Amino acid sequence: MRSQILQEAHGTRTFALVFESGDEMVAGLRDFARRHDLSAAQITGIGAFSDVVLKYFDWEKKEYEEISVREQVEVASLLGDVAASADGPVVHIHLVIGKRDGSAMAGDVAEAHVRPTLEVVLTETPGHLRRQHDPESGLALIRPSAEKPADATKRDR
Questions:
Q1: How many CB atoms lie within 10 A of CB 76?
Q2: What is d(CA 149, CA 56) in angstroms, rounded to the nearest whole number?
Q3: pLDDT in tens, 29-53
Q4: Which of 22, 23, 93, 103 lies in the 20 to 30 Å Cα band around 119?
């Protein structure tokens, strides 16, 4: 993966990340987030994969089911975020892929191998997002900082 900073101002940085054939996207994004000490960022991307493992969260079982796609696919939509956790930055990506026959599949991404390229724009924000364990789902979910009660009251009116 190659990267270039596109913009840096007022605590915000925007990077272009270009993955090449054979690169594994999830590990590459995780490594990039660690190397750049990211704690809050948005991710978008387009490109293609030779194979993908999607995840679907089964609410009843409180666990992910994996869906392997072992064919060339187009990235129709790649959206995600980076948030801080006790173990460092966590990358969370949702993906819609297009298959040769025009059908689409979607889910969380467990693993994806690039072929021939993946172009990602990652925008860091100056604030911090933190993932915390949610007892109801069993997942680590983003929990925004608590607002001041007066501010929350004004907003809800």
A1: 14
A2: 36
A3: 999 999 999 989 999 999 999 999 9
A4: 103
Q: Which residues of 86-97 are buried (b: 16+ CB within 10 A; e: fewer)?
A: eeebbbbbbbbb
pLDDT tens column, 66-120: 999 999 999 999 999 999 888 889 999 999 999 999 999 999 999 999 999 999 9
Q: Pick from 143, 151, 145, 54: which is nearest to 104 by CA?
A: 54
| Amino acid (one-letter) located at 136 | E
Dihedral (Cα; 116, 65, 87, 27), 10-degree rounding: -10
Q: Which CATH architecture has domain 2-129?
A: 2-Layer Sandwich (3.30)
Q: Are 115 and 22 in contact (CB under 8 A)?
A: yes
The whole-angstrom separation of Cα 35 and Cα 145 is 25
Q: What are phi and psi of 135, to 5 degrees?
A: -65, -30
State the pTM of this model: 0.81
Encoded tokens for 149: 């009660």
